[in-house]
Amino acid sequence: MRRLILLRHAKTESDAPSGKDHDRRLDDRGREDAAAIGGWLVGQQLLPQLALVSSAVRAQQTWAIVGDQIPADAPQPSVIHLDELYSATPASMLGLIREAPSHPHIVLLIGHNPGLHELALGLSCSNGGSEPKPLPGNMPTAAVAVIDFAVRQWDDVGFGGGRLVQYMTPKLLKAPHGH
Question: Which of 28, 45, 65, 113 would disulfide-bridge 34, Cβ 3.0–4.6 Å?
Answer without folding.
Answer: 65
